[in-house]
Specification:
CATH topology: Rossmann fold
Largest sheet: 6 strands, mixed
Structural class: alpha/beta
CATH architecture: 3-Layer(aba) Sandwich
Bound molecules: adenosine-5'-triphosphate
Shape: globular
Radius of gyration: 21 Å
Helix content: 40-55%
Strand content: 15-25%
Strand order of the largest sheet: 6-7-8-3-9-10
Order of helices and strands: EEEHEEEHHHEHEHEEHH
Length: about 280
């Protein structure tokens, strides 16, 4: 890991509806290094998906700049692949064809048909889906669909892999298995990854750094935690690791203590302002 590979600088985001401006993000600044695995965590509705969609180029920030490998992001592109919580496979195409569609689009001119075929098979085998090439999405489980979605994203060889709660809809065992696979693939390919999660254990287990967001409206980055745990990480060994539990505690304390305090303070300030405005003497008590 060396350079600043993905950079968000002074990113602000407002959504506007019927003349009312809803400030969602304020002054988000983040540098991600090549090969880093970053998790974004924060309370529901704080703006995590908005950050990810801005990086993906699906949304344009109201202010600020996003750079990937020193190139400004203005639109979606094959250098950023997005995997959603609910797989987005085309239901009428087989597992193989779903990956083929992306591979043909990106490598039509740079790989031969035989090379493309090998590449599709390689990526499906990497996520242990080589045995189900001819199945339709309706014929495989939720975990298998997520695997195909991840294979499709990896097959695009993106500069940045964006994961929006990729394991959120899976049962605990499938989730654990897929997390382990993603860690193995990450150690092999050294992808740069930004992942949204609500799961504190998942964040600590997978990440090099955890980016914790404050509550909205006008959310920003409240704290960044470096997770200095050796890899490969074993989930069972980690359960007894004091550093692992320290990191876990830090994230929980940010989410459930520090953010609560900020919320209480803001509520108190609002109440005080409204009583001052209405001329009540209680505001001075
Ligand atoms: N396209 C949009 N138009 C208007 N408001 C939006 C739009 N997208 C998101 N928002 C608002 O922006 C805020 C942040 O939403 P976002 O989905 O980014 O949060 P989140 O942290 O990812 O939430 P969750 O964890 O529940 O998925 C919310 O108040 C949401 O209603």
């Amino acid at each position: 890991m060396s350079d600043r590979f993905l950079n968000l600088s002074k990113v602000h985001m407002n959504f506007e509806k019927n003349g009312t401006v809803n400030p969602v993000l304020r002054d988000v600044n983040l540098d991600v290094q090549r090969g880093e695995f970053i998790s974004l965590i924060g309370h529901s509705g704080c703006g995590k998906s908005t950050v990810l969609n801005i990086i993906a180029g699906l949304l344009r920030a109201s202010e600020g700049v996003v750079l990937v490998d020193n190139k400004e992001v203005n639109a979606p592109g094959p250098d950023r692949a997005l995997v959603f919580q609910n797989h987005s496979l085309l239901p009428w195409l087989t597992v193989y064809q779903n990956v083929e569609l992306a591979v043909d689009k990106i490598f039509r001119n740079s790989k031969t048909a035989a090379e493309r075929k090998d590449w599709i098979l390689h990526n499906l085998e990497m996520v242990n889906m080589g045995h189900a090439l001819d199945r339709l999405p309706s014929e495989i489980s939720g975990g298998m669909k997520q695997r195909v979605g991840i294979a499709r994203a990896l097959a695009m060889e993106p500069k940045v892999l964006l994961l929006d709660e990729p394991f959120g809809a899976l049962d605990a065992l499938t989730r654990a298995k897929l997390q382990d696979e993603v860690m193995r693939i990450q150690s092999e390919l050294q992808n740069t990854v930004v992942m949204i999660t609500h799961d504190v254990d998942e964040a600590v287990l997978l990440s090099d750094r955890i980016v914790m967001m404050t509550n909205g409206p006008a959310a920003t980055i409240g704290q960044i935690l470096d997770v200095d745990l050796p890899r490969p990480r074993d989930r069972i060994a980690m359960a007894d690791d004091t550093r692992y539990n320290h990191y876990r505690h830090e994230v929980l304390s940010f989410l459930y203590e520090k953010q609560r305090k900020v919320e209480d303070f803001d509520k108190h300030k609002q109440q005080r302002n409204s009583t001052v405005a209405s001329g009540s003497t209680k505001a001075h008590a």
